[in-house]
Amino acid sequence: MKIAVIGGTGFVGGYLVDALLDAGHEPHVLVRSGSEGKLHRADECMITKGDLGSADAIDAVVEGCDAVIYNVGILREFPRQGITFEALQYRGAETTADAAKRAGIRRFLLMSANGIDSAETPYQTTKLRAESAIRESGLDYTILRPSVIFGDPRGTMEFATQLYQDMVRKPLPAVGFHTGISPASGEVLMSPVHVRDVADAFVNALTDDSTIGQCYVLGGPEVVSWPEMLQRIAAAVGKNKLILPMPIGFMKLGATLFDWLPFFPVTRDQLTMLADGNTAEPDDLAALIKREPAEFSPENLGYLAG
Description:
The protein is of the alpha/beta class. Helix content is 37%, strand content 18%. It has 10 helices and 13 strands. The model is unreliable at 257-261 (pLDDT under 50).
């Protein structure tokens, strides 16, 4: 099948392209000018240069394809550069769905995210609006909502690598977030999911008609607390790490003052979502990939030691 991929040059996109090619599909990838070097296995893909602001480029990349995968998401906005949740997570998905319909394409897969239902932040609300637009599009859609994704970033950035660089690698104690006044009053919990499992879930859903009209929450095989994630990252690089508890509310105060600075590690909205937690059962993912999902273990985090 010829598959149009919107969002094929980032962390998850690279693995998605791999999985499509390994399954015998032909990825047609939208690539921003100057980002050609970010596309994994570019010589095996059809490339359309352009961005989400160009309806012509979107029309061109979907033309002649059998299905579309919209895999675009950002964690931080940079409005002066045109990088906003509204433009990329919502309007881009809506524009791409319209292009698919003009091209006569029925099949559409949307990358969404787990933990967005509270709709407390622009990230969450734009993801939800994108889901709503796709549900109402009349297309044969499947929506996938992964928990936090980890795996070898291969030159990009991902969750575990950022935690390693920001908290584990430095000589200072790491921060163990919790939601209440004391650690016992509220743990921060997640269900980390491996990027290869997420990519395989997309590829397997493409040709499985039973997934049409469905939304799948993709979680790893276990629920892990924030301090435990830090300890496993430290173990993967052969370190012992002191972790100091910190209420998320204190960090939010700092973010209120400084999150407008590009170098500040987290935003207020990211801390809000962190406090909400991001857990999911592994059943949907295991059913889609037909194997046990990979654990967030020191062995599977070995890329951090490279």
